[in-house]
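Quick start: what a row looks like.
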Amino acid sequence: MQRRQVTVECWWHRPIVLFRRHRQAPHSRIRALPATFYVVRLPTTTAMQQQIRFCKSADGVRLAYATAGKGPPLVKASNWLSHLEYDWQSPVWRPFLEQLASRHTVIRYDERGCGLSDWNAPDLSFQTWVRDLEAVVDVVGLKRFSLLGISQGGPIAIAYAVRHPERVSHLVLYGTYARGRLKRQPSAAQIDETRTLSTLMRLGWGSENPAFRQFFTSLFIPDGSLEQLRWFNDLQRLSSSPENAVRLQEQFSIIDVTELAPRVTIPTVVMHRRGDAVVPFEEGRLLAGMIPNARFVPLEGRNHLLLGGEPELERFMAELDEFLATESATPAGAVSAPWLPDLTARESEVLDLVARGLDNTYIADRLGVSGKTVRNHITNIFCKLQVTSRAQAIVRAREAGLGRTEPDRG
């Protein structure tokens, strides 16, 4: 059996064996030493890299977050079973993350109790998850961005978008729901099933025998390859302790954002697979119906996650590209242009910032878009206003009531 060279980095301070070697699996055996947390960085064939940093949430819990790629910012709300470093190398998550990072600067983080974030967090409630997202966005310094919510990350993204509509340009929801398992008027049998799942986690989550974890793997990626199934089996053990896995699952089951969803005011797309065994298709359809003007995109397949090589991954990316290319709603506090009816909401927003004397670089940073996108908007504005210079555009803007706020360069 060939040995693969690995680089071992000491990241954290808890004893856990992250990778064990077994036949045909791309792992090496590393014995955990007391008070040491080891991460194995496997060799990668791509030049794309991520940067992992740490920040603290409002209650002092340390969160690990990562950035990768280049382009307009896309924030992924945290979801269950994540490990920033392991996911980055995993055949389960890597193809999807690479697709995102080839188009955007992707910011993602491990939720409290999981991955490289603090495992000993006392509070694992929905409100703390939303505050954790706020903490990551603030430390990265994002002013406006697209927000992606997958699975349990969907309700978190919805709550954040309702709290901060001025910061979210587009909301993308995939394989998610408004109601947790126990908020769907469950039958007695469904309640028993939920309790059984918790028992399975307590008994088998951290076990060397993967039989318990294989049950969850078969729900999340039933059509995955043998390699993907093995990696996902290990991800469960590496991403969280049995105790945290149970605590998190119990909180997920009582999530309810049915009152928040109708208050979303930003452009939203909801995508869901018809055969999803983790989150029923009907829950995705129900969620899309709750959010005003949300677009619903049914996808084929049974996997809860989008795997490399699947046609539906390409379909998801095509839908994402098309959706993010649409105009976003005018953020709260922005000045409308009633005397410039031919301009779109985003063009009015750009013109308002131009009229305040801001340059293209600052406007791009403020809106979370590329400099090229700003230049394209300004070209369209010049054409619609029939002007040939920035000075002429500013005059027209101020006649329409735009640009009266002092420049904000903070």
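That is the whole record. Confidence is low (pLDDT under 50) at residues 1-46, 329-338, 406-410. The longest strand covers residues 62-69.
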